[in-house]
């Protein structure tokens, strides 16, 4: 092509988007393109996806609902009443609290729930506090919205459970913070925040005039049957606490994109503006099917909670013989957070080597924020125990 006919340069793109990191999971999976299969089948522990399908009854209801004419129409902005009532009843039973459908907004996935909720609390020149290591999509969503992120460093010595005292000091030093986000069980570490620690965070945020956002995507996989916390027992939670929830993991329907926000009336009034603009309504067919599933599949969900507990136990058991080199710094929900052995390369190089030479796909710590160069995240929930049996050999292959 001659200079006279050369295409003009591409027009400028958003500096904010160009400064946002690329999606990490596709980047990690590209490393596996060089894998020759020598260590056995590819073991992909990158993305948190259920390693088993929905029950046939749920699949049948999804198919039936998809064929109904009403599923092709717009629905209520805050979600179909049946699903809001079902989730509210489930939350009320789980937390022993008076939660109603009026507290619930259904969204097209929990990532969208986070993206919709953040601008209600913070805007340009303001910030949200994220414990590090953080969930990379939370950080990306804030960057895209032009909202700052203040890191709250968490220590391996504490099992990566965030420290309210450290948060208090950081809030004092960063008055622009409008919300503090906690994920429990955590992504990426798997750390479970004890109820008493959550209560301390709630008191801190209330005293500072800062919203507390609880992302409880993985709460259905907590060990034991006790309430995750008692914060919903106090009716004033609606004035300062927002809960995020995902149906994807609990019902094995990530492709149907359903999440939820629980919040008080003042918050929801402003949230409705974002929801109407960016979503209009959640997917109708999936809402109909999941409204049935929430009460009907309670025993099935309990079985999956027990299954995840067994996989966590199996992971810990498999790691024990190499624990003198590969330390499990945190474990819970869907995830394990491993510290690289002394002498091993930093996380980015280690993750690429494990993928390209040993067929083990993990996510390196730097994908989850600053100070994570010596850690890898493994989503052990993706794989059955027999597949995890190869894990110690593949990790040891790093040298």
From TrEMBL:
Residue intervals of the Aminotransferase class I/classII large domain: 43-391
Domain of life: Bacteria
Names of the cofactor(s): pyridoxal 5'-phosphate
Enzymatic reactions: L-aspartate + 2-oxoglutarate = oxaloacetate + L-glutamate
EC class name: transferase
EC number: 2.6.1.1
Keyword Repeat included in the entry's annotation: no
Keywords: Aminotransferase, Pyridoxal phosphate, Transferase
GO BP term (any one): amino acid metabolic process
GO molecular function list: L-aspartate:2-oxoglutarate aminotransferase activity; pyridoxal phosphate binding
Segments traversing the membrane: none
Family, per entry: Belongs to the class-I pyridoxal-phosphate-dependent aminotransferase family.
Stated name of the protein: aspartate transaminase
Protein encoded by which gene: aspC_1
């Amino acid at each position: 092509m001659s200079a006279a006919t050369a295409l003009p340069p591409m027009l400028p793109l958003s500096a904010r988007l160009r400064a946002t990191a690329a999606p990490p999971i596709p980047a990690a999976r590209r490393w596996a393109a060089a894998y020759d299969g020598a260590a056995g089948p590819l073991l992909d522990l990158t993305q948190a996806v259920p390693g088993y399908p929905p029950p046939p009854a749920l699949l049948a209801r999804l198919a039936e609902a998809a064929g109904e004419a009403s599923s092709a129409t717009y629905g209520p902005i805050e979600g179909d009443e049946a699903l809001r009532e079902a989730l509210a009843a489930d939350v009320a039973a789980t937390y022993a609290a008076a939660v109603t459908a009026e507290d619930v907004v259904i969204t097209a996935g929990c990532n969208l729930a986070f993206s919709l909720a953040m601008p209600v609390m913070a805007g340009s020149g303001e910030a949200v506090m994220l414990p590090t290591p953080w969930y990379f999509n939370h950080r990306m969503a804030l960057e895209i919205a032009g909202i700052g992120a203040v890191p709250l460093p968490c220590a391996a010595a504490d099992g990566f459970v965030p420290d309210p005292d450290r948060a208090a000091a950081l809030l004092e030093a960063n008055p622009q913070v409008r919300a503090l986000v906690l994920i429990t069980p955590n992504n990426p570490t798997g750390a479970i925040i004890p109820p008493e620690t959550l209560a301390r965070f709630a008191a801190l945020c209330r005293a500072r005039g800062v919203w507390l956002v609880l992302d409880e995507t993985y709460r259905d996989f907590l060990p034991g049957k006790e309430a995750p916390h008692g914060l919903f027992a106090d009716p004033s939670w609606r004035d300062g606490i927002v809960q995020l929830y995902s149906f994807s993991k609990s019902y094995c329907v990530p492709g149907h994109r359903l999440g939820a926000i629980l919040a008080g009336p003042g918050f929801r009034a402003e949230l409705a503006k974002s929801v109407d603009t960016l979503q209009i309504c959640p997917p109708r067919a999936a809402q109909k099917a999941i409204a049935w599933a929430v009460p009907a599949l309670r025993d099935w969900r309990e079985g999956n909670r027990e299954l995840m507990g067994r996989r966590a136990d199996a992971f810990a058991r498999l790691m024990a013989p190499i624990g003198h080199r590969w330390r499990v710094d945190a474990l819970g929900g869907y995830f394990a957070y491993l510290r690289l052995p002394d002498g091993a390369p930093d996380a980015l190089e280690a993750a690429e080597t494990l993928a390209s030479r040993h067929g083990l796909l993990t996510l390196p710590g730097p994908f989850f924020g600053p100070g994570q160069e010596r850690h890898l995240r493994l989503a052990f929930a993706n794989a059955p125990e027999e597949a995890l049996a190869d894990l110690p050999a593949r990790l040891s292959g790093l040298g």
